[in-house]
Amino acid sequence: MLAAIAPVALTAIWVYLAGKGALYAIWRQLMGRKQTNDQTRQQLMQLSLINPFMHVLERFKLFDTLHLPMGSYHMKLLLLKDSSWSIERTKGEATAALGMGYAALTGCAWMSLLGQEPTLLVIGGVFGIVLTIRPFVDAKRQVEERKQQIIMELPVMLSKLMLLVGAGETVQQALARCLEGKEAVQHPLYKEWGETVSMLRNGQSFSTVMERFNRRCAVQEVSIFTTVLLLNYRRGGEHFILALRELSYTLWEKRKAIARSRGEQASSKLVFPLVGILLVLMILVAAPAVLLMS
Predict the structure, then answer these.
(1) pLDDT of 28-45, one tens digit each?
(2) Residue 61: phi, psi to the nearest 5?
């Protein structure tokens, strides 16, 4: 009974939330071919998945109720995107995930009705939950990967900085020279480092630029690095290099620890393919004996 009612009810709720105007606009987008596929896809998602559920979430003030997870998600997106990322775009991302989960549940409900298989309705519920929370999980994973990338590359840049300062370069010039040849590389540390160099060239104060660099990276090791720079860059010479050398040793040790943990993760991921290959070999070896016995 539930399998028969669920798809009709879910579809009716979506039609009610979307409204006649949105349904007509969706029909026009599907029938028209004037725009590119990417533009059409984005507008269809906005009309069919984001706008209907955004209205419901704002009407019942669910964003205010979930302000803690939404605030955490927004901070992660700020790190992954750029400083111009707004809270409205974060709400749009979360609402799109909710719409995708609802669409998955509705599709599985219709397949359950047409195929007379109630289990598909349960699977649709699982898919709906997974698709809804997936952006939050992915954002956390991407932030952790970004942190590891920054920690892995920071000691290399620090070593270059020590060599350049030891050779007589000023700190500002050494920061710019460290970035040579790295402009086209897509790396979070190079991106933030390049913005820092650009701000220094535009005449902004060293302390303001380094504080912004620290906030944008949002990594403890970078915070220590910027603190050492701010405390010692005016001294220069041996005092500055000695402070950087002590920090460099700590950063190289953390780089080694991350490399070891990544190696352990890679080896653990190989266990599942090896188990699968072992099962296949067991079947291939045992199958002739079973067939002869029968």
Answers:
(1) 666 665 555 666 777 777
(2) 55, 40
